[in-house]
Specification:
Length: 403
């Protein structure tokens, strides 16, 4: 009963607190922890310890044994509320982590809804909610009781703490240097490694489940990241590094309006522009080559959001920068920079490429991972939805790539 996994109950309150208040910043977390959560936890655990010392027979239900009989049902109600809050923390945390993984390029785009106007990290992702629901149903059918989940819980939490310390070292080393960060991380790693190693014997008792989920997510994320690199390389082979003047020299007919061509790279002529000119023998009178770039920072300030470069007369390149916790909004950006452009944004058409993958026998990635990447790519959220581009102003152009 008093396995090493039980000690992690002390820190789960801190985990739930962070997942709930993490959107609000550093100060709410500190106030909530030092003035509410930590005092309540200390009083509760000291009380249970005192009760067990005096009445060892109540060790299996020490929390409820501290209260008089009339308070049992209110405490059960309170415990139910705590379980709901903890579940909500897990759900919101899963949404936030998935959103950040998408913005960093480790997961395909999913349909999501933003429910926090003042905080772009507050999102609802229906597919993740469905996956969590199905996973919970499977857990109930497989383990049947909370006691059977003890091994899975202990191993998952101890592994999370170990990984968190390692990642914290990476972040701290950028601010404090490797020596100071290393000494601090080694101090915490002594505890984390001890707890994690003591839970390894729980693998056969349910600990295999979180390990299996972690391996599955690792395969999906690395497959998507690697597939994106291969796709970019394939498209890069067909993408010209010439200036747009090479297109204008083909006796193309200039059409009225502004053509905004979405590009994955911040240089060269995008394949969408080349294909459009090749098949229609026309080109918009005003051309904007627009690239959305996600930086490895939570947020990019508004004054550093846009970089405008005039390549040639009537042709400009616009690079839009976002942090991984920010939601891209292309129409809003264009409205903000309309005064900086040399022409008016009238009769605008967005030209978007629809990529179609082709599996080859190149030995750059295993066949099943290539097929997985193409499957994920086909089911990913469309660019126009992700970038909030009006569908009635979109012209899609087919683009093929090989893996």
């Amino acid at each position: 009963m008093f396995g090493s996994w039980l000690y992690f109950l002390v820190v789960t309150g801190g985990e739930a607190l962070y997942a709930d208040l993490g959107h609000f910043g550093l100060k709410p977390i500190r106030v909530g922890w030092f003035y509410v959560a930590m005092p309540a936890l200390l009083i509760n655990y000291f009380g249970q310890a005192s009760l067990v010392i005096l009445h060892p027979e109540n060790v299996s239900h020490s929390f409820y044994a501290m209260a008089p009989n009339w308070a049992i049902y209110p405490l059960v109600f309170l415990a139910t509320l705590a379980a709901i809050i903890a579940s909500q923390a897990v759900i919101s945390g899963a949404f936030s982590l998935t959103y950040q993984a998408i913005r960093l390029g480790f997961m395909p785009r999913f349909f999501m809804k933003h429910y926090g106007e003042d905080n772009e990290g507050q999102v609802y992702i229906p597919i993740i909610s469905l996956i969590l629901f199905v996973s919970n149903c499977l857990l109930i059918l497989m383990f049947r009781s909370s006691n059977s989940l003890a091994g899975a819980y202990g191993l998952a939490v101890s592994a999370t703490m170990l990984i968190t310390t390692i990642l914290a070292f990476v972040v701290f080393s950028r601010r404090w240097g490797k020596l100071k960060s290393g000494l601090l991380s080694i101090f915490f790693l002594m505890f984390d490694v001890t707890f994690f190693s003591s839970n390894l014997d729980k693998i056969v008792d349910g600990g295999w489940f979180p390990i299996g989920v972690a391996i599955l997510m690792l395969f999906i994320m690395t497959t998507w990241a690697r597939g994106r690199v291969l796709e970019e390389n394939s498209l890069k082979e067909n993408q010209s590094e010439d200036k747009p003047s090479s297109l204008f020299g083909r006796s193309l007919i200039k059409t009225s309006g502004v053509g905004i061509f979405l590009a994955s790279r911040s240089k060269g002529i995008p394949n969408t522009l080349k294909s459009y000119c090749k098949h229609t023998q026309t080109i918009p009178k005003q051309v904007i080559i627009l690239t959305v770039v996600t930086k490895p920072y939570p947020r990019i300030s508004a004054n550093r959001r846009v970089l405008i470069q005039e390549i040639e007369p009537h042709v400009i390149r616009v690079n839009v920068y976002y942090g991984f916790m920010q939601s891209p909004n292309v129409p809003k950006v264009l409205m903000n920079i309309k005064d900086e452009l040399s022409f008016e944004l009238k009769n605008v058409t967005f030209f978007v490429g629809r990529q179609t993958g082709n599996v080859t026998r190149k030995k750059n990635m295993s066949m099943w991972r290539k097929k997985l990447y193409i499957f994920l790519s086909k089911n990913a959220e469309e660019q126009i939805i992700h970038y909030k581009i009006p569908s009635d102003k979109v012209f899609e152009i087919g683009v093929r790539y090989s893996l």
